[in-house]
Amino acid sequence: MPTSSIPPRTPSNSGGAKAVRRLVLAALTVAVAAGCGLSRGSPSPSLAPSGVTTTSTTAKAVAAYAAGGRLTEALGGGVTREVGASGQAADPTWSYDGAWLSYTCQSSPTPSECSTTQGGFAAHPPPQRCGGLLLPPGPPSVHVVRADGSGDHAVAGAESPVEWSPSADVLAFTTQSGAALQIAAADGLATDLVKAGGGSIESFVWSHDGTALAYALHSADPSTADQVFSVAADGSRYQRWPYVPPEHAGIILAGWWPDGTGILAWPDPDHSASIAADGLPLVSVRLAGGPAQTLATTLPYRPWVRWSPDGRSVAVVAGAGREPWQAKSLAVCSVPGGGCTPVPQAPGTVSVDPAWSPDGSRIAFVRAPEHGSPGAGADFGSWYPSRRLWVTGPGGADAHEVPGAAPGVAAPAWSRDGGSLGYSTGSSVNSVPATGGSAAQVAGPLSGGPAPGWPLIGKAPWTGLAAWAPSWRSVGAVPTLRGRPRPRVRLPGGF
Predict the structure, then answer these.
(1) Three-state secondary structure readout of the chain
(2) Which of 88, 116, 140, 244 is a plausible cystine mate for 69, CB 3.0–4.6 Å?
(3) pTM over cut 0.90
(4) Is the dihedral of CA 140, 145, 147, 148 positive or negative?
(5) What pLDDT was estimated at residue 310?
(6) What pLDDT shows up at residue 138?
(7) pLDDT value for 4
(8) Mode of pairing for the β-strands spanning 52-53 and 79-83
(9) Which residues, in sequence order, are bridge partners of residue 401?
(10) How far apart are CA 172 and CA 155, in angstroms?
């Protein structure tokens, strides 16, 4: 590939790729020294209703969530801890080892001064009341904070959404409306990986082993098609992928194949957010080239694209239309084969929010009545409580509702031992045995929180979704290919 086809990159500080290598190496050194995380099969920490607040920095968190505008950790045993900056916190996300949390913080007046909800779930971003005037909210700042509550700071220039590396305490993000893709160690400065020239980086995603990022580049030249590139996390290698989307279409990246030889993406006609909101074809593309394979029409929402622990299959929520209560079902697709097997469901229902068990034998998901069916309600607010927690085999065998789970379920997550399922509702964070039984309230009652806007309409309660700590949740096995462990790419310094 000619060098001229690669977008120019300009380091944000002297040293260029060497600075990136030092940043990644330092983060990996810390990760190795810390002896990160629990091994698979470790028992889940005890979960109990919240009720006691502590300032202890030694207790480990079970989950993080936003409540009353504050970033809060549930520590188990009914204890919670507030962390992070004052302001309106949202979107907590853990680093791979649970040492850090990222979140967004809106420092302007809280949404409690004006209407923020439609029946208790995500509505449009609310205006802010300042000096008697209603003003649209400014962009939130991105913060990171250690799990013990120390070291909180804003990440200069970072735009939401941000993504943690799956193998180091390193955060990736774009700046200046996609003008550059940067990475930063959780406790360090940012460094440019690539700049977009006169165009913009529309989306990006880490490889499963954390050694590279793929990004979609929208050219400033309207006659030039959008392109997919990948860049090594240490800044040493760049590659342009041969995939070309349909004419005038944008590219929204969904994720890498676990073995690193392909990607999943949504081609977006005319870069239209409105078209994208109603669903796009999810395509599978090989790095080596060849025709893209369409798996299914889905909403461009990454939590609805979930890889199996062995890396051979991906569970998706299939169906067009922006409303999650209409025409949504689960399908399990083979990659790279491309065939998809629908998970059976009763007429008049929808299925969303898939999550694989640690051993890949089961999929937890949310099932609810379809709009217009009995029990669905007349609007999103009355429909949301109808969502129930279900478990099925990948082909639909033994599909059943989990007894004891609370109504209004969103975003189920498996514990590391596969024995429990955590989930969020509009008023609480809960856990229930995977086989059914008495649910435990991990945190609640919840209140407040900035409403996330149309991309999450009906997908998340207005109080937001809990982020389960890596020490509790299943993070999946190291993906394998044809039953063999995938080779890990060595980074500078031998790690």
Answers:
(1) CCHHHCCCCCCCCCCHHHHHHHHHHHHHHHHHHHCCCCCCCCCCCCCCCCCEECCCCCCCCCEEEEECCEEEEEEECCEEEEECCCCEEEEEEECCCCCEEEEEEECCCCHHHCCCECCCEECCCCCEEECCEEECCCCCEEEEEECCCCCCEECCCCEEEEEECCCCCEEEEEECCCCEEEEEECCCCEEEEEECCCCEEEEEEECCCCCEEEEEEECCCCCCCCEEEEEECCCCCEEECCCCCCCCEEEEEEEECCCCCEEEEEEEECCCHHHHHCCEEEEEEECCCCCCEEEEEECCCHHHEEECCCCCEEEEEECCCCCCCCCCEEEEEECCCCCEEECCCCCCEEEEEEEECCCCCCEEEEEEECCCCCCCCCCHHHHHHHCEEEEECCCCCCCEECCCCCCCCEEEEEECCCCEEEEECCCCEEEEECCCCCCEEEECCCCCCCCCCHHHCCCCECCCCCEECCCCECCCCCCEECCEECCCCCCCCCC
(2) 88
(3) no
(4) negative
(5) 94
(6) 66
(7) 31
(8) parallel
(9) 390
(10) 11
Alpha-carbon dihedral angle through residues 128, 445, 50, 432, given to the nearest 10 degrees: -120
Which residue type occupies 234?
D
Residue 255: closest CA among 181, 311, 173, 176: 311
Q: Where are the domains of the chain?
A: 3-485
If the chain, 495 residues long, is cut into consecutive pieces of 10 residues, what is the mean pLDDT of each piece? 34 44 46 30 34 63 87 84 87 95 77 38 40 57 94 94 96 95 93 90 96 94 86 92 91 96 95 93 94 95 96 96 94 91 96 97 97 85 92 94 96 95 92 95 72 64 86 57 37 29
Q: 151: left (phi > 0), else alpha (psi -120 to 50), else beta?
A: left
